[in-house]
Amino acid sequence: MLHVWHDVDMPSYTVVRKANINATPERVHALINDFHEWSAWSPWEDVDPNLQRTITGPASGVGAHYAWVGNKAAGEGSMEIVGSAPDQIRIDLRFIKPMKSQTVTRFDITPSGHGAEVSWTMSGEQKGLWGLIGRFYPMDKIVGKDFEKGLAQLKAVAESD
């Protein structure tokens, strides 16, 4: 008899960080929707000074693709914008090294006061070795501080013009 196992024991996670940015939602959207702009605000840009980046596809929006290869800390992976609307950008994020994983990252941009509130969300399931790690070290602790740093840098860049 064939038994089908369901991944009910697989830890799922959601990491969310928010920031209020004193810039138009359009300005914030443009900085996130174009991978060429990420070098100015991404929290991972300074992890490896020799990071190799490849940006392909459209200049921005759906289909834009960013791949990287770096040192052990930066690893290797890719991102592709799979959804882009004025109030939300969705990104398919895939890591190859140090461990394979795939997740969806979402930026929600909401008009707020004299600017925009940006919510950065990553959710998924921790499989394989990540599942074991997740039982002891939650994903929020792994990337939460990076999201905070990235949003602070995004705020600084968006508000500088």
The helix count comes to: 3
CATH homologous superfamily (4th level) name: START domain
Strand content: 35-45%
Enumerate the spans where pLDDT stays under 50 for 5 or more consecutive residues.
1-10
CATH class category name: Alpha Beta
Secondary structure tally: strands: 7
For the record, the count of structural domains works out to 1
The rough form would be described as globular
* Biggest sheet descriptor: 7 strands, antiparallel
Bin the helical content: 10-25%
Radius of gyration: 17 Å
Give the SSE string: EHEEEEEEHH
Oligomer: single chain
Reported CATH architecture: 2-Layer Sandwich
Pairing-aware structural class of the strands and helices? alpha+beta
Strand order of the largest sheet: 1-7-6-5-4-3-2
The CATH topology is given as: Alpha-D-Glucose-1,6-Bisphosphate, Chain A, domain 4
- pLDDT averaged residue by residue: 86
